[in-house]
Amino acid sequence: MTTTDSTATKSAMAASTAVPPFAVISGAQVQRALHGREKQIVELVEATYRVHGAGDSVNPPSYFLRFPDRPSSRIIALPASIGGDVRVDGLKWISSFPENVKAGVPRASAVLILNDHDTGYPFACLESSIISATRTAASAASAADRLSRHRPRPTRVGFFGVGLIARYIHTFLAGTGWSFDDIGVHDLSADSAAGFRCYLEQSGATAPITVHDSAEQLIRNSDLVVFATVAGEPHVSDPSWFAHNPLVLHVSLRDLAPEILLASTNIVDDIEHCLKANTSPHLAEQLTGNRDFLDGTLDDVMAGRVTVPTDRPVVFSPFGLGVLDLAVGKHVYDEVVRSGELHVVDDFFHEMSRYG
Ligand SMILES: NC(=O)c1ccc[n+]([C@@H]2O[C@H](COP(=O)([O-])OP(=O)(O)OC[C@H]3O[C@@H](n4cnc5c(N)ncnc54)[C@H](O)[C@@H]3O)[C@@H](O)[C@H]2O)c1
Which of 101, 229, 249, 319 to mutate to test the pocket of ligand 1 (most atoms within 8 A of CB)? Predict the structure, then answer.
């Protein structure tokens, strides 16, 4: 190798291990990057499920920080690493404080840290409640589509628990081509039901909206049921309410008694993740002592390895994978860079010379 070659190689190595600048991305910037891109984000989430299904990811169990003095609250850490085209590592750190809602403050707040693949250096901190709601809604919209391809497409949707996540799911359904003949709403809080109805009317939804006081009536009158409550344990336990075989997006994970899951086709995002933290699938595993009630993952359905029967309810229980936050977060980062509006924090990493 000539001196010139060796110098070029060294400078190429230095460039590839250069520490990236550290940026902070606000919620307003996140929203600008994601607004109106529902189809694109659903495609991104589906591609991420494929990468994860192919094993090109690391997604350890989420860590739940709980507090003896505030039992309804928690903060969850979701570390993850995704390969494929995204190639980024990172951590979502998301709080759930349900009491916030009474004070007019959203339940969940979050940040997402993205770490550089080559150096491990964190290179961005993003507001992440919007990213989290977006990836959750995109996953739900994907499931609604993929799980209804071999059965009559639902025309009557029922939202069970109508906070921020239900709003994002409706936006994603509408943004990916769904329209409904009827929209049902059920919530323990009359204020939430009224707020959601107001959102639906402003969103341009033309279907009649019915607020159901009865959980049973909401379910019996819907062939797509979206659970987005904050229930900590099952409160819907009568399998006969599901006799019309609806498609159920069980996003809040703990609403359904195991008996309902045992009478349904069960699709999850990741089997190991879903069978934890007293989710309804976890309770069904504890009740039966096995995992036979699980039919597969959404990736299995997308790849055609699992077909969904039409003669039972279908329940999609997504635990919510950190790799989805990373993929959507990196997409936001790239968009903000492209727009020329990346706010870099100068000198964030300061001790950069080993011996000073
Ligand atoms: N699986 C995932 O990937 C994922 C991701 C994000 C959020 N979530 C879950 O989505 C849920 C909703 O989140 P959010 O931010 O919209 O919460 P939120 O507090 O804004 O809204 C929840 C609504 O559910 C209602 N509710 C609570 N218990 C109910 C019950 N038993 N019956 C009917 N209504 C009930 C509340 O009154 C409230 O209006 C949470 O459980 C959250 O953990 C899941």
Answer: 229
Check if 264 has its Cβ closer than 6 Å to any atom of ligand 1: no
| Residue of 159, 165, 225, 269 with the most ligand 1 atoms within 8 Å of its CB, for mutation | 165
Tens of pLDDT, residue by residue over 302-331, are: 999 999 999 999 999 999 999 999 999 999
For 98-115, the pLDDT digits (tens) are: 999 999 999 999 999 999
Q: Rounded CA gap, 250 and 247, in Å?
A: 9
For ligand 1, atom 17, name the residue with the nearest CA: 163
Please state the atom number of ligand 1 nearest to the C-alpha of residue 186.
33
pTM score > 0.85 for this model? yes
